[in-house]
């Protein structure tokens, strides 16, 4: 690892991540930015070997940024550094191309160990995330969805983080029609947000 990019809006978290990177990879060059726009400006001029990405950024979603980095630099490793360990954040990030995922509740020694394992070919996952993934794939058969086949397709796509415009394009329907399906999905499932929709998509086995 020669060059890393930290995308994190909290100064204390940035300092923690930078210290861990310097300990894990002595001599590594570390750049820091606090926003999606700042990351895109940096990426337009340079490429990282490793990007540590927070999901909740002031001007956008880190998941979309991961997808952009992987499109531009497929060989760059993108690892999520987040306070969230739930399905609604974990699976869309992995679907976007994240190579690893760890939570900020672990100590620096544990983080350094996770980062060092990258050079050994091991996926950089904090223990809690690794357990969550094992649990997900060991779960029994998912329950049947009460949705129609088309509604199920829409739920799968929004669960993976696609926008209404993208859903419409992929399913060859208008944005207005896609929004109507989402409204019906929310009503049938008793939910009110995309995060809840992602959880339901995972529950029905649509993100596997």
Write the layout of secondary structure elements.
Blueprint (H helix, E strand, L loop, with lengths): L2 E5 L3 H14 L4 E5 L2 H8 L6 E4 L2 E2 L2 E2 H11 L4 E6 L4 H10 L3 E4 L4 H9 L10 H12 L10 H11 L4 H8 L3 H15 L4 H10 L5
Parallel strand pairs: 1-2, 1-3, 3-6, 6-7
Antiparallel strand pairs: 4-5
* Shape summary: globular
The level-1 CATH class of the largest domain: Alpha Beta
Topology order in helix (H) and strand (E) letters: EHEHEEEHEHEHHHHHH
Strand arrangement across the biggest beta sheet: 2-1-3-6-7
The separation of the N and C termini measures 31 Å
Beta-strand content bin: 5-15%
CATH fold label of the largest domain: Rossmann fold
* Average pLDDT for all residues: 87
Helix content: 40-55%
CATH architecture of the largest domain: 3-Layer(aba) Sandwich
Q: Sheet with the most strands? A: 5 strands, parallel
| DSSP strand tally | 7
Give the helix/strand class.
Answer: alpha/beta
Number of helices: 10
Question: Any idea what the CATH superfamily of the largest domain is called?
Answer: Response regulator
- Structural domain count: 2
Radius of gyration: 18 Å
* Parts with pLDDT < 50 across at least 5 consecutive residues: none
Protein name: Hisitidine kinase
GO molecular function: DNA binding; kinase activity
Organism: Wenzhouxiangella marina
InterPro entries: CheY-like_superfamily (IPR011006), NreC/VraR/RcsB-like_REC (IPR058245), Sig_transdc_resp-reg_C-effctor (IPR016032), Sig_transdc_resp-reg_receiver (IPR001789), Tscrpt_reg_LuxR_C (IPR000792), WalR-like (IPR039420)
């Amino acid at each position: 690892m020669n060059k890393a990019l930290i995308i994190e809006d909290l100064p204390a978290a940035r300092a923690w991540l930078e210290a861990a990177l310097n300990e894990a990879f002595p001599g590594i060059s570390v750049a820091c930015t606090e926003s999606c726009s700042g990351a895109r400006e940096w990426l337009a001029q340079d490429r990282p070997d490793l990007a540590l990405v927070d999901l909740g950024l002031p001007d956008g979603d880190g998941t979309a940024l991961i997808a952009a980095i992987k499109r531009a630099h497929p060989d760059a490793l993108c690892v999520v550094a987040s306070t969230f360990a739930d399905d609604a954040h974990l699976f869309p990030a992995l679907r976007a191309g994240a190579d690893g995922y760890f939570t900020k509740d672990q100590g620096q020694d544990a983080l350094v160990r996770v980062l060092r394992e990258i050079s050994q070919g091991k996926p950089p996952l904090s223990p809690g995330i690794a357990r969550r993934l094992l649990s997900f794939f060991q779960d029994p058969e998912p329950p049947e969805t009460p949705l129609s086949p088309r509604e199920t397709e829409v739920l799968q796509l929004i669960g993976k983080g696609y926008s209404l415009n993208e859903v419409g394009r992929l399913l060859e329907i208008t944005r207005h029609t896609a929004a109507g399906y989402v409204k019906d999905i929310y009503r049938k499932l008793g939910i009110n947000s995309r995060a809840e929709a992602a959880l339901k998509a995972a529950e029905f086995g649509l993100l596997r």
